[in-house]
């Protein structure tokens, strides 16, 4: 865990506790209400428990402590993916057939469909991050360009002292930074984008049962985009539609849109418009005296002159006529 990371958790520690208790039964019931019903066996040490919580969009962040050493058996989480890492102490976390020895350098990523058993040491205090299962599966489906035929199941061991682990800490820090100023609220679109970034970080950086397929699809998607780009360049002055571009790229419409969004940040049809705009701009710069803006606009597929002029000015900072008269 990076030295600065613990300090970045201050907003979570400052949040009012969902509960704080030295009563074993109260601690168990309150934890089950916030997370999931589970079997809890108290081991050595004194019960001194608390649970603090912050919510940002669909991502839930917790700090949980039992005080005493405990054995926890929640079974399958079912409805959510859970990341956890000790801030104090250590834990033995069994996820399916794997066992993670968790400490401040190594966390655990717990898939919803794998049975879970945990043994926390005395004084163990953990950061938990909870993400709805449906969000993870929807994101994986989008990256693949296909429906999933089985649940996403991650390798549970999560190293924090790697580039991927350090990036993960920065992303959690970015979420928590919004709580440092009282009353501050992030834009809802930023929240949704940040949630997706967190999920895709896991899908692209942490090994799981779809990793190899994602890598193959990623290479295929790049090829599909290149083929579509070539087709667009060759037919830029002709009528183009999404179905025809997808067919030329050897891809479904949905897969091609996802691949263009990932590689170019825009849809295929916006990419077409940008390429046509660039060609119109080049022609305006090289135009001979007497050339009309309308003729160039129509040649590159812009049938609405007013809209063309508006978008041209937004992109190049001047009107098409001003470019033509330079």
From TrEMBL:
Region forming the signal peptide: none
Superkingdom field: Bacteria
Question: Which keywords describe this protein according to UniProt?
Answer: DNA-binding, Transcription, Transcription regulation
Q: Which SUPFAM superfamilies match?
A: Homeodomain-like (SSF46689)
Q: Which residues form the HTH araC/xylS-type domain?
A: 226-326
Family annotation (InterPro entries): AraC-bd_2, AraC_XylS_family_regulators, Homeodomain-like_sf, HTH_AraC, HTH_AraC-typ_CS
Report the GO molecular function annotations: DNA-binding transcription factor activity; sequence-specific DNA binding
Q: State the name under which the record lists this protein.
A: AraC family transcriptional regulator
């Amino acid at each position: 865990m990076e030295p600065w990371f613990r300090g970045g958790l201050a907003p979570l520690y400052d949040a009012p506790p969902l509960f704080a208790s030295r009563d074993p039964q109260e601690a168990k019931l309150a934890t089950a209400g916030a997370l999931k019903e589970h079997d809890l066996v108290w081991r050595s040490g004194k019960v001194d428990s608390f649970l603090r919580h912050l919510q940002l969009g669909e991502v839930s962040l917790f700090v949980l402590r039992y005080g005493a050493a405990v054995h926890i058996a929640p079974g399958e989480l079912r409805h959510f993916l859970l990341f956890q890492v000790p801030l104090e102490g250590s834990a033995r976390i069994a996820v399916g057939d794997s066992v993670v020895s968790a400490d401040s350098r190594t966390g655990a990523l717990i898939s919803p469909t794998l049975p879970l058993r945990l043994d926390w040491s005395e004084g163990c205090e953990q950061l938990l991050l909870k993400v709805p299962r449906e969000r993870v599966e929807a994101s994986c489906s989008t990256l693949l360009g296909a429906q999933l035929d089985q649940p996403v199941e991650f390798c549970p061991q999560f190293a924090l002292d790697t580039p991927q682990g350090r990036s993960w800490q920065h992303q959690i820090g970015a979420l928590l930074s919004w709580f440092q100023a009282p009353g501050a609220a992030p834009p809802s679109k930023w929240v949704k984008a940040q949630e997706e970034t967190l999920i895709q970080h896991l899908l692209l950086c942490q090994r799981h049962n779809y990793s190899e397929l994602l890598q193959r699809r990623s290479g295929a998607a790049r090829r599909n985009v290149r083929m579509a780009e070539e087709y667009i360049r060759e037919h830029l002055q002709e009528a183009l539609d999404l179905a025809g571009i997808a067919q030329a790229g050897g891809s479904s419409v949905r897969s091609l849109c996802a691949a263009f969004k990932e590689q170019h940040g825009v849809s295929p049809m916006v990419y077409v418009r940008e390429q046509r705009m660039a060609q119109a701009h080049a022609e305006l710069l090289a135009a001979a005296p007497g050339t009309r803006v309308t003729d160039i606009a129509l040649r590159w597929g812009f049938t609405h002159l007013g809209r063309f002029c508006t978008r041209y000015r937004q992109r190049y900072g001047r009107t098409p006529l001003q470019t033509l008269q330079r």
